Amino acid sequence: MPMQLPPVPTDIPVLVESSFSANYGPEHHGVDVAAQWWCEATRRPRRGDAVAAVSAPGAGQARPLLQLTLNADDLDEAEAVGHYAIRIARPLTRLVADGDDGAALGELKGLLSSAGPLGGGSSAAWHRVNEWLPAARAAARVQDIPELELLGYGRPVELWTVSMVAKFLGFTGPSANGSARKQLSRWGIESQGREPGRRGESQYSADEVRAKHAARPGRGRHGATRDGGRFTEPQDN
């Protein structure tokens, strides 16, 4: 019977560390490595990048499925590298299960395109994927799947939660998140992931939100801006 690789859920925990900080194991963060997917993103300040490793259930801490390296200036960007690695892992696992999954193939090509964070490393990344997939399909156990290492030279897409989008757009009060979701739906902006846990919020591309907001007709009220990982209220002119 062929090895069954479980699908990647929408709420994988992302453990963010710095090479200057103490590194804790997944158990410290409440992650059950035998039963759930998880991702560890480590920022390397001296190199100006971050390395994100996505691990499948039962594979063990030392045997990630995917390792992605992208530029990162702070821990927020390191976390974004983790989320981007997870986005890549989703179609990868579907292609391991079904090599004819056209939707997964198209999704993966978009994530690895030269127009994205992989930049000039796009062709090399795609070559590595094509070499990796047959080996992954031939593995008898999850632990036997070889690690796929991808290297890019850009920065990943920054993700905002619904609450962050609501604040940026200027929505307040108990219905702020609901109003933000309606606006995102009108703009056709789809969720790129979800925070872990029952109360985790859906996450959306900050660049898409900024672009749609900037293109709105009329001058209107400009939303808050984000600085150093926090929002600052808009200034009155």
Q: Profile the largest sheet.
A: 5 strands, mixed
What are the low-pLDDT stretches, counting only 5+ consecutive residues below 50?
Answer: 219-237
Shape: globular
How many β-strand stretches? 10
What structural category arises from helix and sheet content?
A: alpha+beta
What is the strand content? 15-25%
Helix content: 25-40%
CA gyration radius, whole angstroms:
19 Å
Fold topology:
Layout: E1 14-18, E2 38-44, E3 49-55, E4 66-71, H1 75-97, H2 102-111, H3 122-138, E5 148-151, E6 159-161, H4 162-169, H5 176-187, E7 193-194, E8 202-205, H6 206-214, E9 225-227, E10 230-232
Parallel strand pairs: 1-2, 4-5
Antiparallel strand pairs: 2-3, 3-4, 6-8, 7-8, 9-10
Helix pairs in contact: 1-2, 1-3, 4-5
Description:
The protein is α+β, with helices and mostly antiparallel strands. It is 33% helix and 19% strand. It contains six helices and ten strands. The protein has a five-stranded mixed beta sheet with strand order 1-2-3-4-5. The protein has a three-stranded antiparallel beta sheet with strand order 6-8-7. It has a two-stranded antiparallel ribbon with strand order 9-10. A hairpin with a 2-residue loop joins strand 9 (225-227) and strand 10 (230-232). Helix 1 crosses helix 3 (122-138). It is globular. The N and C termini lie far apart (67 Å). 34% of the residues are buried.
